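User: Structure please.
Assistant: Input sequence and predicted structure:
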Amino acid sequence: MPDNNPNRRQLLTIGAALAASGFAVGSASPASAHRPAPAGGEQPLDIAFLVFNGLVPLDLVGPLGVLGATQRAGGPPARLHFVGPDLTPIPGGEGMQWVPTATYATLPRPDVLVVPGPGLPSVLMQDRPILDYIRTAHRHTRITFGICTGVLLMAAAGILRGRSATTYWAFADELPLSGARFKRRRWVVDGRIITSAGVSAGMDAALVVAARLWGERAAGRGQAFLEYDPEPPFDYGQVENLPDADQEQLWKLFQAERDRVREVLT
């Protein structure tokens, strides 16, 4: 059973990630909707990353790095918040822990809501408090950004009905059960909803988010800052490119969770 208290190494890891992002960490106490605007300056955007037990780390850290680098390379100011139900540290998967800096109650109206993916989406798709937060925060966001299986949480919250969206390849047949129109793309933009395909695609979609918030030139500076120019050594980025036996092995890995997701959405 995981220890809920972060040790020094874990805190240093999280701190290093934040330092690399260039973000300022938001305070947990004042809600953005109630803060007075600073005299003579633009109000920094509040960017809320949902954190929860079982979160896939790269779903959060990748977009965090992209948005932070865009800022650091000359973009307008923004404040990062890790948002949880309370301020108790949360197991984040793969030995990491997330320490919320805001709660659903203290940050009800973020400018940008980022929903990373859980390893087992069917569990979070039945978590009423997190679904209520996605639903109510989305009413006020400039952008609601879902990554990988985080898109399924948005679907369960009911905000994708009639919208075009993408998600992790294994759940392509399940997403439309929510009323969303699935598109097999790295990212999809439908109004102020931006969704990405699996895990690594979140970095591509984060560049789209950065361009929407601060312009393409700013996003380009962030991309160059990160030297984000991927050249994977193998052509297996699409599951269809694998040999048949390997495709079958991966599909089997997800079959039970696909059945559970299907049950939740129907």
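Residues 1-40 have pLDDT under 50 and may be disordered.
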